[in-house]
Specification:
This protein is α+β, with helices and mostly antiparallel strands. The chain has five helices and eight strands, in the order βαβαββαβββααβ. The chain has helices at about 20, 30-40, 65-85, 115-120, 120-125, and strands at about 10, 25, 40-50, 60-65, 90, 100-105, 105-110, 130. A hairpin with a 3-residue loop joins strand 6 and strand 7 (about 105-110). The protein is globular, with a radius of gyration of 14 Å.
Length: about 140
């Protein structure tokens, strides 16, 4: 379920929500989700692509209301993952802030404007992916 022990999790003791701290291994995609939540991202979804594609394990998909919020969400996710030693392989779309794509290898983060999210509709395109339930904070 989108968790690789060597790359996609952090060890206990990380600064996360109380519920997350009680887990021995917290997946890094969940760190990204919590960072997006802290910047009021909307419609956050995690798609498990294990067995569907070979280029990544999961997508974190969310929506920002405007360009500034999309950039703030992107920056916060980057900051929180950097605190855990995770750095992006690449980032696209930050300046335009319609669809920001950040590649962390084992997972990709997609931050959309409402219009771009509706147009590209990744959930439909990757409909064979499983939705991952995001635990309550």
């Amino acid at each position: 379920m989108c968790i690789l022990p060597h790359y996609s999790t952090i060890r206990s003791g990380a600064i996360l929500s109380r519920a997350d701290r009680n887990q021995p291994d917290t997946p890094l995609w969940l760190v990204a989700v919590r960072a997006a939540e802290s910047k009021k991202a909307a419609e956050i979804k995690v798609l498990d692509l294990t067995g569907v594609t070979s280029f990544t394990d999961c997508f974190v998909v969310c929506t920002g209301a405007n360009a500034r919020q999309i950039q703030a969400i992107t920056e916060e996710i980057g900051l929180k993952l950097k605190e855990h030693g995770e750095f992006p392989i690449s980032m696209e779309g930050y300046n335009q802030a319609e669809w920001v794509l950040v590649d962390y290898g084992d997972f990709l983060v997609h931050i959309f404007s409402p219009r771009s999210r509706a147009y590209y509709d990744l959930e439909r395109l990757w409909r064979n992916a499983r939705n991952v339930e995001i635990p309550a904070a």
